[in-house]
Amino acid sequence: MTRSTDRSMNVAGPMGATTWAIAEGYIPSGSTGPEPAMTSHETACLLNTGDADAHVEFTVYFSDRDPIGPYPVIVPARRTVHVRFNDLEDPVPIPLDTDFASVIRSDVPIVVQHTRLDSRQAENALLSTVAYPISGGS
Amino acid sequence: MTRSTDRSMNVAGPMGATTWAIAEGYIPSGSTGPEPAMTSHETACLLNTGDADAHVEFTVYFSDRDPIGPYPVIVPARRTVHVRFNDLEDPVPIPLDTDFASVIRSDVPIVVQHTRLDSRQAENALLSTVAYPISGGS
Amino acid sequence: MTRSTDRSMNVAGPMGATTWAIAEGYIPSGSTGPEPAMTSHETACLLNTGDADAHVEFTVYFSDRDPIGPYPVIVPARRTVHVRFNDLEDPVPIPLDTDFASVIRSDVPIVVQHTRLDSRQAENALLSTVAYPISGGS
Amino acid sequence: MTRSTDRSMNVAGPMGATTWAIAEGYIPSGSTGPEPAMTSHETACLLNTGDADAHVEFTVYFSDRDPIGPYPVIVPARRTVHVRFNDLEDPVPIPLDTDFASVIRSDVPIVVQHTRLDSRQAENALLSTVAYPISGGS
User: Fold this and answer.
1) Pick from A88, B37, D125, B116: which is nearest to C125 by CA?
2) How far apart are CA B136 and CA B20, in angstroms?
3) What's the maximum distance between 2 C-alpha atoms anywhere in chain D?
C-alpha cells in the first residue's frame, strides 16, 4: 500500500476552484432511523487534492435576515472532509426547517459537492449535485 | 453575531450568471404527508450574494403550447429565495401533471439550483441539480 | 396571456450547446404504481428556446456492443420535449436492465437535463442532473 | 442495424475531459432487496466516445489517511463502463461506511457521471450528478 500511496500523491496537485455556491439548503428537524447515519442532514463534501492544507470559510444566506458566518473548516492536504451543516455551530448553529444557501471560499483550489439525506418520512431520500464553481477554477 | 455578519458582507459580491435554464419541470398533482412541507413541489433556489436587489423573470416552456411569462421574482441583496413553481400565479398558474421547462433571467448575477420533492407515493423522493448557466457568468 | 407570450418570445433566443453527453443510463424492467406516470423511466429533457426547430439525434453506447443510433427527435421552436428512453424504438428499442450511456446532438443549441424515475421498489426514487455540454455552448 | 451502427460511429469522436473529481463517496454496509441490482452501491459511469481505448486510473481520498490507488480501469473505444466502487479491489477494497472522494484520470477524454443507490432502508434512494471536470476538456 506504500507504493500505491506514493504514486497517487505524486500525480496529484491542487484541483477545482476557490469559491463555490450552493443555492439550496434546508435541514429538516425530523428524522427516522438510527442516529447518526440516518439523521436528516445537509452535507458539503470538500476534496483537497493539493499538498497544502485548505482554509475554508462558509457563509450562510437566508431569505429574511443578514448572512451569517464565516464558519471556518480546515481540509488537510490530500484529504476529503464531508461537512454536515448540522454540525456548524460557531458563530451560531444553522436554524432547522429554514431555507438557506451557502458560499464556500478556500485559500487553495478544492472541489465541492452537495448532498442531502432526508429521513423525515420512513424511507430516506437523497439528493446530490456538484456545487457551482464561481472563480479560481484550475 | 454583528461581527460575523459584517465580515461576511464585506467579502461577498455578485456571483453567478444572469441567465439560467432548467430543462426539467413537472408538478405532480398528488401529495402524501403534512402540508406544506410535504406537498409535492418543484423549486428553483435563487441566491443573490451581491449588494443590489436582483430583479428576476421566469419564462416557462411547454411541449404543446407557446411559452408563458414573465413571472417576476425579486431576490433582495444578500438573500436567498426558494421559489416554488406551484406558487407562481401571475400571469397564470403553471398546470399540474404537465411537462415544462424554464428560463430564469436576472439583471444581476445570481446562482440557481433546481430541486423537486415528489410525494405522490408514501415516501418522498428528492432530486436536485445546479441549473445550466447560459450567460453573464462571473 | 397574449401579452405575456409575446414578451417572453421576444427576449428569448437559442440557448445551450449542440452536443451533450449522459454517461449514466439504465432502464429497470420492473415497476410499481399506476402506469404510465409511475413506470420506471429514464428521461432526457430537451429545451429549445430558439425560433428554429431543433433536429436532434441520440446515439446510445453500451459496455459490450457497438453503439446504436441515431434516434431522431424534433424539438419545435420555443418548446420542451421530455424524451423517455423507453419510447425510443427506431432503429431498435433500448434493452432493459442494461447499462448504457448516450450522446445527444442538435443542429441548434438546446439545453439537456437527465432524470430517472425508479419504481422497482414500493416507493419511487428520482435522480436528475444537467447533462454534460460538449461543444457549441452559447 | 449495421447501417445505424456505422453512422453513429462516423459522427463520434473523443468527448469530455481527462481529469474528473467526485467529492462525495460513501458505500453503506447494509442493503435491502435482491442482489446484485439492489445492493447499495456507489457508481462512476464512464463514457468513451472515441476510437482509442481509455486507460483510466482512480485515486481515492479519505478524511483520516493517505489516498490510495491507482485503481486501473479500461474503457474500450465507443463503450461505456459503469464502475461500482464496491468492485474496486486492487490495491485494496474501499472500506464501507467511510467517507471518501475520488479523482479519475484518463489518457483520452471521457465523460464521468456519479450515481449512488442506497438501499439501507426498505426503499432505495438514488442520487446522481455529473462529476466535476478538471482539465483536458474538449
Assistant:
1) D125
2) 10
3) 53
Cβ-Cβ contacts under 8 Å, C89 against chain D:
none
Give the CA diameter of chain A. Answer: 53
Task: Kindly state the helix (H) or strand (E) to which residue A115 belongs, with its residue range.
Answer: strand A100-118
Chain A CB within 8 Å of residue D95 CB: no
pLDDT at D24 exceeding the cut of 60: yes
Per residue in C25-48, pLDDT tens? 888 775 544 444 445 567 899 999
The answer to whether the Cα torsion of C34, C39, C44, C50 is positive or negative is negative
* ipTM over the 0.85 cut-off: no
Query: Helix (H, G, I), strand (E, B), or coil: what is residue C6?
Result: helix
Amino acid of residue C57: E
Number of Cβ atoms within 10 Å of the Cβ of B66: 15
Nearest to C127 among B62, B127, B131 (CB): B127
User: Are C116 and D133 in contact (CB < 8 Å)?
Assistant: no
- Tens of pLDDT, residue by residue over D49-107, are 999 999 999 999 999 999 999 999 999 999 999 999 989 999 999 998 899 999 999 99
Work out the number of other CB atoms within 10 angstroms of the CB of residue A6.
10
What pLDDT is stored for residue A73 in this prediction?
Answer: 97
pTM across the whole model: 0.83
Residues D103, D58 contacting (CB under 8 angstroms): yes
